[in-house]
Design brief:
Strand content of chain B: 15-25%
Number of helices of chain B: 10
Helix content of chain A: 10-25%
Strand order of the largest sheet of chain B: 7-4-8-10-12-13
CATH class of chain B: Alpha Beta
Oligomer: heterodimer
Number of helices of chain A: 2
Number of strands of chain B: 15
Largest sheet of chain B: 6 strands, parallel
Strand content of chain A: 35-45%
Shape of chain A: elongated
Radius of gyration of chain B: 19 Å
Number of strands of chain A: 15
Structural class of chain B: alpha/beta
Number of domains of chain A: 1
Order of helices and strands of chain A: HEEHEEEEEEEEEEEEE
Structural class of chain A: mainly beta
Chain lengths: 196, 337
């Protein structure tokens, strides 16, 4: 490296890719920058949508007032995630990305790191076999419990917020709290591509 | 001291079989001829969610398995949503003390026209409200004490004991045991209010008789008296008291333990507070399956304290007591954070 030249930082291409994507949006996100490809960037995620689906419910409390789930399972800052591909050779690439996580009053999606590898081989003229895998570190969806006051009949109890008014005994509702690890979003993809 | 003779009665025709100081009367069985078999599509099974009081646990697979109990139009719309999650009466014992002979009524609780004895209807109704409760039918002609099972016991009394107010009577072993359980808070005793339109238990009928069983239960911590609304009420469409129903009256001890529920005699052919009481018995069983460590008195108080007044037309303490029982509100917490 010539004297005076700054050493490329790890973050620089990522930031450049993100900058291009955020500025131009949509199609530009697939463009290559210095061997770096932006595979995906999105606001929200599968887990984020899963949490938001819970917001549609509700029930009446003992006095007849309505308790909605809306504020418990919604957020003003949905999860932001991106996935990049760094080409290492003609047939191999490193996949990596991250997500910011998300927090609602009664749930948490942990920030996540995605790491993976893509291997590709031309097995015949114009025919490519590829295998890729990504693993997700952290990124779990964790539902928080509530404290419910049942008054004289059962007092204060830790419960699943959604099931507090169901026929289940309060302590049994905790078995139905959402506990999904980010690992479940790991992917292995095998593809065979014929180019004409 | 007269020896009580237990005589089943048909509806409002209070006619003693034997002349005795104490007569036991079916207070509520006002069976009407069933013209239509049922309410058409209303009587088909329906496990969908309810309306204005509906609970919804949200989407996802993180909810318990949903059983599919049949819902019929005579039931309150809260029930399907209550049933939607968890068990309904499991581990609770409902003992229907009633007559299982003599009085045959024709009706339809949604699963077809049948002719059953009074007690069989009462038992069937309680079982439809709390499908997983253990239900035992006990003939009220028996004189041996009712035994308690291990767990929550609910005793349904859809009858009364009419006798002169000043008569010196001795209750048999069965009746004495039930009264004792209510007074000691050992079992929830659900008692139909009666069909004489007057105030519960205090008012004498035309031959100067009062319901001595009801009177004995006044002040018992785990007793509930049940009157009838003409149908299930809602905030949008409050229900009036049924024309035949005995009302709470002016005794604060009765008012504080008096509930009403809708009895849809027009569709079932079964009218009277006899068919109001088993709904409350079923509700008590559902509550007992949720609050497994609660005492009978606590279950009783929960039903009384969560009753609704905004679903009753022209609510009055002296008529409706604590209001229309709401199983959804009884299951729910007072507050949650």
């Amino acid at each position: 490296m010539p004297p005076g030249q700054t050493k490329p930082t790890f973050l620089r291409p990522v930031l450049r890719a993100l900058a291009v994507c955020l500025a131009m949006a949509g199609p530009a996100c697939g463009e290559q920058i210095d061997g770096l490809h932006l595979l995906d960037i999105q606001l929200g995620s599968q887990k984020s949508r899963q949490a938001h689906q819970l917001a549609s419910g509700g029930y009446e409390l003992a006095d007849g007032s309505y308790q909605s789930f809306r504020n418990w399972y919604s957020t003003k800052r949905p999860e932001l995630s991106f996935l990049l591909l760094s080409q290492m050779s003609q047939n191999a690439a490193f996949i990596w990305g991250a997500s910011t996580g998300e927090r609602g009053e009664k749930y948490l999606i942990q920030p996540a790191l995605r790491l993976g590898l893509l291997l590709q081989n031309e097995i015949a003229k114009g025919t490519y076999f590829s295998i890729s895998g990504t693993v997700v570190l952290a990124g779990g969806l964790l539902e928080r419990s509530c404290m419910a006051d049942y008054g004289q009949i059962a007092g204060l109890q830790q419960v699943n917020c959604r099931l507090a008014a169901s026929t289940l005994p309060p302590q049994d509702t905790l078995s139905y709290l959402i506990r999904e690890s980010g690992w479940s979003d790991s992917r292995l993809t095998v593809s065979l591509e014929k180019r004409f | 001291m007269p020896d009580p003779q237990k005589t089943p009665e048909r509806g409002m025709e209070w006619r003693p079989r034997r002349s005795s100081a104490l007569r036991l009367l079916g207070l509520a069985a006002m069976a009407t001829l069933l013209v239509a078999c049922n309410g058409g599509e209303d009587s088909t099974a329906n496990t969908g969610t309810g309306t204005d009081t509906g609970a919804n646990s949200g989407a996802g697979s993180t909810t318990p398995p949903i059983p599919s109990w049949p819902y019929y139009s005579w039931m309150h719309s809260e029930l399907p949503t209550v049933w939607a999650l968890g068990f309904q009466g499991q581990g609770v014992f409902i003992k229907v003390i009633d007559t299982f002979q003599d009085t045959i009524l024709t009706g339809d609780l949604g699963d077809g026209v049948q002719s059953l004895f009074h007690g069989e209807w009462v038992s069937k109704e309680a079982g439809m409200v709390a499908p997983q409760a253990s239900i035992a039918n006990i003939d009220y002609n028996l004189t041996t004490p009712v035994a308690l099972d291990a767990g929550l016991n609910v005793m349904n009394l859809s009858f009364g004991l009419l006798a002169p107010a000043n008569a010196n009577i001795q209750f048999d072993g069965q009746t004495s045991s039930i009264i004792q359980y209510a007074q000691a808070g050992q079992a929830i005793v659900v008692k139909s209010a009666g069909n004489n339109q007057g105030a519960a238990f205090g008012a004498a009928n035309e031959i100067n008789e009062v319901d001595r069983l009801g009177l004995e239960l006044v002040g018992a911590p785990s007793a509930i008296f049940v009157g009838a609304l003409s149908r299930n009420g809602s905030v949008a469409n409050p229900a009036p008291i049924a024309s035949y129903s005995t009302v709470a009256g002016n005794d604060p001890a009765v008012q504080s333990h008096f509930l009403v529920v809708g009895v849809d005699g027009a569709s079932t052919g079964l009218s009277g507070t006899s068919f109001a009481a088993p709904i409350i018995s079923g509700y008590a069983a559902i509550l007992g399956s949720k609050f497994t460590t609660a005492t009978p008195t606590q279950i009783t108080n929960q039903l009384l304290q969560t009753a609704r007044r905004d679903t009753v037309a022209n609510y009055s303490l002296s008529i409706h007591g604590q209001g229309e029982a709401s199983i959804a509100n009884a299951l729910a917490p007072q507050s949650i954070q």
